[in-house]
Amino acid sequence: MSYSYGIDIGTQNLKICDGNNKILNLKNTIAIVNKNQMYAYGDRAYSMFEKAPDTIDVSFPIASGVIADFDNMQTMLFEVIEKTLKGKVKGSDVVVAVPTDITDVEKRAFSDLFSKSKNKPHSVRICEKPIACAIGMGLDVSEPTGLMVVDLGADTTEISVISLGGLVLSELLPFGGNQIDESIVTYLKRNFNLVIGQKTAIALKEQIGSALKGRGEKLTVVGRDVVSGLPIEMEIESDVIYEAMKSDLESFCNNIKLILEKVPPELAKDIVHSGIYLTGGTSLLHELASLFTEVTNIKVNETEEPEECCARGLGAILTNDKFKRYGQSPKLRIFK
Ligand SMILES: Nc1ncnc2c1ncn2[C@@H]1O[C@H](COP(=O)(O)OP(=O)(O)OP(=O)(O)O)[C@@H](O)[C@H]1O
Ligand SMILES: [Mg+2]
Questions:
Q1: How far is the CA of 177 from the centre of ligand 1 (A)?
Q2: pLDDT band at 336 (very low <50, low <70, confident <90, very high)
Q3: 332 part of a folded domain
Q4: Which end of the chain, N or C, is less packed with Cβ atoms under 10 Å?
Q5: What is the C-alpha to C-alpha distance for residues 114 and 112, in angstroms, rounded to an integer?
Q6: Per-residue pLDDT tens for 18-31?
Q7: Are 212 and 290 in contact (CB under 8 A)?
């Protein structure tokens, strides 16, 4: 039996599509004890985040879209494939998604996670994330038609224009959902003397946050009062979260507009016609699509389960001959 895996290694979530097009989505988090011993990984390690004693180090092996902790990322991938998925890396076919706007060495490191291991797969290929996302959304990337894909992740936002199966423009911005969470934490501390953790900020963002004013929801959270130092319960309204996120939302809009200004006119015509395609978990933010339509005057298309879009596309590259050519062998240019 031969195994195949399409792997999207995100800053917050690791998504693996197997040969049956089933997707496993787990937190890309590791908990280490005694400096280098893996204690837990995935969702269990994430449940320890912000709660672990000093003896357990909970961390994210990917930062700003690139590998920050190679060894632990490699160990975790093998554990997930062999223990959680009950599969085999050795002899399998692997396609790994890589951000476009990073160096060749950084790209190479993603395939090295597999090719520089004891149990090597049969083949390791890479695919640029925006192409995999577009395929995952069911778009025909091979046409001479301009497609704009905005992947809003946790630590990165990748804005790309695709035509004829290649990237015409791509920009990797070093911020995403995590930045929004930090802004919420800072805003509540500054304006309400309330200290909350990142997980509470995420709950506020996801449950009552909105990219447009006036959602009108409320959520009661527990934090620490800066003045008394004691735990306190407070009801937060949607518009407070909107104010906290406002400058991050402006950054998203400004960067999308900047890319649109650089698109060659014939491709711009296609984008106006087909609309902007959103993917990545942060695209689930309430009314984000409406905000982008408002500022660009272009229709915005959302997709179902946007976090898994890239992995879905990688699955298609592995199993459908039509998309096979989008998985490339990693090249490393050496400059002398
Ligand atoms: N309903 C929601 N509203 C707002 N944000 C959401 C929602 N659901 C998930 N998110 C955010 O989506 C992000 C995770 O998305 P995703 O899995 O696409 O990121 P990633 O691939 O791990 O990151 P990156 O692509 O930057 O490496 C998190 O910041 C999470 O808080
Ligand atoms: Mg991602």
A1: 6
A2: very low
A3: no
A4: C
A5: 5
A6: 989 999 999 999 99
A7: yes
Q: Give the separation between CA 267 and CA 224, rounded to whole angstroms.
A: 51
Segments forming the whole domain that contains residue 106: 4-132+310-326
The neighbour count for residue 200, using CB atoms within 10 Å, is 21
CA gap 96, 11 in Å, rounded: 14
Residue to mutate (ligand 1; options 181, 206, 238, 291; most atoms within 8 A of CB) = 206
Does 125 share its domain with 187?
no
β partners of residue 93: 4, 123
Q: What pLDDT was estimated at residue 260?
A: 96
Atom of ligand 1 lying closest to residue 306 CA? 18
List the beta strands (DSSP E) in 51-142. 56-59, 62-63, 66-67, 93-98, 123-128
Backbone angles phi, psi at 81, to 5 degrees: -70, -45
Both 287 and 321 in one domain: the answer is no
Residues 76 and 96 both lie in one domain:
yes
What confidence tens digit (pLDDT) does each residue in 57-107 have? 999 999 999 999 999 999 999 999 999 999 999 999 999 999 998 999 999
What CATH number is given to the structural domain containing 50? 3.30.420.40
User: Which atom of ligand 1 lies closest to the CA of 286?
Assistant: 3
Count of beta carbons in the 10 Å neighbourhood of residue 182: 15
Q: Residue 257 falls within a domain, yes or no?
A: yes
Tell me the CA–centroid distance for residue 11 and ligand 1, in Å: 9
pLDDT average, residue stretch 214-231: 97
b/e per residue 110-125 (b: at least 16 CB within 10 A): bbbbbeebeeebeebb
User: Quick one: 155 and 10 in the same domain?
Assistant: no
Residue type for 49, please?
Answer: F
What length does the chain have? 336
Nearest residue to 112 via CA among 80, 73, 82: 73
Structural domain count, the chain? 2
In terms of phi and psi (left: phi > 0; alpha: psi -120 to 50; beta: otherwise), the region of 91 is left
The mean per-residue pLDDT over the stretch 294-309 comes to 97
Please name every residue paired with 152 in a beta bridge, in sequence order, or none if there are none.
157
